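User: I've been going back and forth on whether these two constructs are worth ordering. Before I decide, could you fold them both?

Assistant: Sure. I'll take them in the order you sent them. The first construct and its structure tokens:
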Amino acid sequence: MGSDPQYASYPNLLLSQHIFTLRTPSLSAYHPAANKALTASIKEASQAPLYRYLAHPADGILSSEIVWDEGYYEELKKGNDKELEVLDTEIKESDEKAGESEVVEAMGKKAEFFARVVDKERALAAYEELYTKTPTLGAKIDIVLAIIRMEMLYDDKAGVKKSVERARRLIDTGGDWDRRNRLKSYTGLHLLSCRQYAEAAPLLLDSLSTFTSTEICSYSTLVLYAVLAGTISLNRVDFKAKVIDSAEVLAVLGSRSGGAVSAGDVEMIGAETEDTEGYSSLESLVNSLYLCEYKSFFVALADVEELFLSRDRILAEHKAWYVREMRRRAYAQLLESYRVVGLESMANAFGVSVEWLDRDLSKFIPSKKLNCTIDRVNGVIETNRPDDKNRQYQDVVKQGDQLLTKLQKFGQAVRLRGSERA
């Protein structure tokens, strides 16, 4: 199992969810709760850098939402300076009077202090300095994971990508089982934030049975991410095995876990508690898609968009794309079974008007995302699925022609060089 994870307490990624909520006008109903949570965190953890980052009247990202008090800021900053002075003294004394392990421990406290008060630049610098002094591989991995969390909090996708690769290289040299699984969750969340759902799905679904990374999200939130990623990217067989019939998924989704409630009772994604309220809509989404109950699927998709996609900091950025792709997937699933489908019949199956379905299908057909044509005169949709065998044959012919051309050019070059020698 390896040693227990270190440096996992800070930063608190739930803060980034509250910040996202306050920056999103459509979530105004949740602004008071998010404001209260942020101001409470700033006070309890003496987060002067975070307070300035959020509320400063000149460049604070939430200056219109959080009141700036210069005196309060100076009070917080004074407390931070005193705490930092004590930590610097501890490092100095450890360096002079104690051994290397005591120095590393003191440096770790300083790095965690910067992470706690959410001072990004100084936290990253302190973690890098700690990294150079840390002798054990497990602790080095924990430091890089802490760096990843700080970069996630600030939505630094480029930084997260580099740090994830760095952590993977360390783990490949001999990381233990627990840290391998923790990195799997971190990587899955990063891929999700970059709209790489197909790559994120297997990592997130595999993480469900071994999840210990509660420092990045709650277990129920991980289930949400895994189910959404799997639903949009897995083929039908894997979707059934890894999502529909998954014991970990069934333990969380609404009605089957006995926790179904109305959609209106949902509070906020990203909560630290294991709250599965509203997950019945997610269960309805996956089941209706698999069972081809498309009218229920569209209703559930709208609920999931409102309850989860719009409110979560990771999912909201790709909300419109996700909803569009899920509609395309449902259309493609229905059309796969028929060569000709009545336009009115298909509209009734999805619970929409013929005109709306016509417009929506027209968004996918020109880009070849749906292999069909619409015949409005006869009121039908004709599928024109590509013939895989014919396509493979054409690919072989094309590649064979390219190979013969290259061989001819090579033969000519060889003959020319031979004649030159002669």
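The second construct, handled the same way:
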Amino acid sequence: MKKEILNFLTIGALLGTVVLSSCSDDNGGDPITDPEEQEDRFITVAGALMGDNPGDGNGGTMVYSVTKEEAQNPDTQISVYTEGFGVKSNRTAHLQSSEDGSVLFNIAYTGDNGGEFSRYTVNGGGSFAQSDVSVNISQYAGTSPRWLKLYDGDKTGVALNVANIKANNAPAGSTPNASFAYYRGVATVLALDLQESLIKSYQQYEIPLTNEEEAAGHTIFRLDGSVLNKAEDKLIIGTWMRKYNTVTGETEGDYDRLGTKSVVVDYPSFANPTVITSTVSHGDNSGYRSHYSYLGDDGNIYQATERDPAGSHILKINQSNEYDNSYVFSLNQALGLTGVTIEAWQYAQGGKAFALISHDAAVNGFIVWMDLNAKTASIVDIPYDVDLEFNQYQGFVVDGKNVYIAVTPVGKNGNIYIMDSNTGVATKGATLVNQPGNHYIGIF
């Protein structure tokens, strides 16, 4: 899983430069009022077992829960792989949790039970009681749906899929001809009732781009990373774009990318899909098994990008559900690096957030503290290991001003870290005991 070995002294010098050049938190002198913490809650950690290769996470998912006090204590030993509970999934489970940490939600990913939604009551340790009621959404969204829980009081999950991408909706196996107009798939947007474990509603439709974009072979390949706007009348959905050669029908890996696009649909009907485009970034914004867009305290939506030739950005979508192209926050520029990719991130409060990143000059991942208002970023000061990767990371817990993050290099022990979103300072918590080839992928 290593990209290349970088001289250790070079990494150290680079980190020193990044930390020293980053901007400090400046709230204009206003006193910081910390959001309220929960008095007590379970903290559930998730670990991915290796499949064929170390760090691929394709061997299934284990979970284990501790109290918040235990999670904060470095003397706590958590061994998810020997004492944990295996949630349903042929590969890496797609997990979400209730706001108070008492319930875990899962949709199995691929395999015979792919698309099956389950609820688990968190009882502590390796005890997770599965609800008697489950529902399988595979007939609507396939056996490998992308899904996230909305921030609506644990009421709704949204599953997404794009299937059967082909030219002009021609029969399978046919190739483009002189009448070629577009490549499109059929998108599914499905609402899950998280409390009753049932399908509330769904819509299926094609989502066209502009005539010019489609004539060049561009199409929406994947949907994910949905978020509800402040008015709760629109759902903003992230996209992963793809381009086909209009003559051969083959996908193209190297092409001029379009601006970052989101799909906006009415909520809760999911009707009237429209596409909005950012001119700030040319990356995708669907994320990878985690939230990639958040509703900020100011009522705007903040969205990360990936696969951007100019490095990841944080974009802003205003309360009119349009991109604010005057807001420019480049992680390359803020960190003084190249090739910055946000693997996962979490909005905390007051415009503060944490991102798990990779970049061109190192083989391992890093944690970055961000001020979205000041558009500044700095690497958090914790020990980093060359085998630390965040490419499959899923879950964070926000508790008041604090954000809990699991940090384990592949096959090595690590720790829970508690990040202060006001200062960017990390405190070491419980020890995460690892096994060869495995890694921890989230906290819920």
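Notes on the second construct follow. The CA atoms of residues 25 and 275 lie 35 Å apart. The helical segments are 8-21, 68-71, 80-83, 138-141, 211-215, 331-335.
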